Amino acid sequence: MNEGIRRKCDGWAEKGYLAIAPDLFWRIEPGVELDPDVEDQFKQALNLMGQFDQNAGIADIEATIRAARARLGEGGKVGVVGFCLGGRLAFMTAARTDVDASVGYYAVGIPGLLEERHAIARPLMLHIAGADHFVGPDQQKAMHEGLDDHPRVTLHDYPGEDHGFAAEMGKRRSEAAAELADKRTEDFFAEHLA
Questions:
Q1: Where do the H-state alpha helices sit in 38-155?
Q2: 132 counts as catalytic
Q3: Quick one: average pLDDT of 130-145?
Q4: Residue 163 designated active-site
Q5: What pLDDT, on the 0 to 100 scale, is given for residue 141?
Q6: 141 or 50: whose pLDDT is higher?
Q7: Which pLDDT belongs to residue 49?
Q8: What's the whole-model pTM score?
Q9: CA–CA gap between residue 50 and residue 108 (Å, rounded)
Q10: CATH of domain 3-193
């Protein structure tokens, strides 16, 4: 959780969505707030990611989906958006829960999850940074080979863009690519959550 994620939520709320950002690291360091542009904080984030129980994280996301549906009422649809580890969790959420639609930005470690592709029953969109220093060309190729033919999965490539290109703020943001990815996400949710 940080200012960038709060701004993302505010943006969705301005579009009329209920926007919730759960504290997924509450078991390790409740309320932690880190800036990826500050080297020490970025290293702390990587350390927390190494300790993070992804299955417990999916359980927390599933609880958040249920809470959102309760607030939305009968027929309310829920979408999930995640960045980096959150992009991986968006993929896992699509495969393991009944979320209505999921979007992952620069998802890490997807090739190790491709055996779950058969369980994706609702729409999933992944934004892939072509020059991602965390998700190299071999991983990107494996994602395309494993998912291009999936009827519920849409992949978008952003050649030359690095990890974090769609950050709401900071030095990693690449304005044109971020605007394109965010517009695609907005259109995707308008189609699948309306």
A1: 39-51, 54-72, 85-96, 137-147
A2: yes
A3: 97
A4: yes
A5: 98
A6: 141
A7: 86
A8: 0.94
A9: 13
A10: 3.40.50.1820
